[in-house]
Write a structure and sequence with these properties.
It is a single chain. By secondary structure, the protein is of the alpha/beta class. The chain folds into three domains: 2-85 and 262-282, Rossmann fold, CATH 3.40.50; 88-170, Rossmann fold (3-Layer(aba) Sandwich); 177-255, NadA-like (Rossmann fold, 3-Layer(aba) Sandwich). The protein is 42% helix and 16% strand. Bound molecules: 1,3-dihydroxyacetonephosphate (13P) and iron/sulfur cluster. Residues 60, 85-87, 113, 171, 173, 234, 259, 261-262 line the site of iron/sulfur cluster (SF4). Residues 60, 85-87, 113, 171, 173, 234, 259, 261-262 line the site of iron/sulfur cluster.
């Protein structure tokens, strides 16, 4: 049944000249129909480069919106419209304007996990993979960082000459992980390397052997001879690592580390999305124009 569905999707994809981009937090079976699977930075690049007619985004709303901004002449589809991001929802146009008004004249770095409207108020975007370099590139002694205070604080810890002023938002999934979760996981796996995503809080980052984005964590495993790892990020990363490295042991930090929103999209949703060309993501022209600049600036810097 699943095999048939995968085949039907792959056939339809070719007929319709569609490309499927999938984030690593998606259900692992989505990889069987995806053209590209990766983290936010990789997928933004692919969305900008592709010459297809339709982009199906297996991810959350802000990712599909970013794809539309980068490829305004393509049809961008999000197979399940309820797939939102709790962190992106923590800031809106009114809130970012208020934040900027309290700190006038300071460049604003916007984590890609934000709405198109919020991006229009920012100077440059960043992802967890490039945030340190993006902030450094501004050559400013102060920057505003929205909306993830944890990623902003991590950037601050790496750049002593810059004052990073953080907006008070976070990813609740990563932020809810605690030192105790790590201590518990370490108890039975003393030798395991602790790999942590920078959306986690400082107390958790302090216990890490390595801090990195989704791709950073995956590359760490690829290039390491260690046999055991504690994965301190969303479960999709742990599942893919277990699949790709069957001879290594991966301990998933906690059942709290599951982004329900990222799990909403199913293979059936993707099939329906291709057949009906739903759900189309549209962004008003004036927002595309202003939100394109900070995203393009980020892409050009890497
Ligand atoms: P990255 O893909 O940049 O690691 O981001 C993690 C995330 O939370 C995506 O929603
Ligand atoms: Fe948003 Fe966090 Fe889910 Fe990523 S993991 S989509 S930041 S809520």
């Amino acid at each position: 049944m699943k095999k048939e569905l995968v085949e039907k999707i792959n056939r339809l994809k070719q007929e319709k000249k569609a490309v499927i981009l999938a984030h690593c937090y998606q259900r692992p079976e989505i990889d069987e129909v995806a053209d590209f699977v990766g983290d936010s930075l990789f997928l933004s690049r692919k969305a900008a480069e592709t010459d297809c007619e339709i982009i199906i985004f297996a991810g959350v709303y802000f990712m599909a919106e970013t794809a539309k901004i980068l490829s305004p002449n393509k049809k961008v589809l999000l197979p399940n419209l309820s797939a939102g991001c709790l962190m992106a929802d923590m800031i809106n146009l009114e809130k970012i304007r208020l934040f900027k008004s309290k700190h006038p004249g300071i460049p604003v770095v916007c984590y890609i996990n934000s709405t198109a409207e919020v991006k229009t108020e920012c100077d440059i975007c960043a992802t967890s993979a490039n945030a340190v370099n993006i902030v450094k590139s501004l050559n400013s002694d102060k920057v505003l960082f929205v909306p993830d205070r944890n990623l902003g604080s991590y950037v601050q810890s790496k750049l002593k000459d810059v004052e990073v002023i953080n907006y008070d938002g976070c990813c609740p999934i990563h932020n809810n992980l605690t030192e105790n979760d790590i201590i518990l996981a370490k108890k039975d796996n003393q030798k395991a390397k602790v790999l942590v995503h920078p959306e986690c809080s400082k107390n958790v980052l302090d216990l890490a052997d390595f801090i990195g984005s989704t791709t950073g964590i995956m590359n760490y495993v690829k290039n390491s001879d260690e046999k055991e790892y504690i994965i301190v990020t969303e479960i999709g990363v742990t599942q893919r690592l277990r699949r790709d490295y069957p001879n290594k042991k991966f301990i998933h930090i906690s059942n709290k580390a599951i982004c329900e929103s990222m799990k909403l999209i199913t293979l059936e949703d993707i099939y329906n999305s291709l057949i009906n060309e739903t759900f189309e993501i549209n962004v008003p022209d004036n927002i595309i124009k202003s939100a394109y600049k900070p995203i393009e600036r980020m892409i050009n810097l890497n």
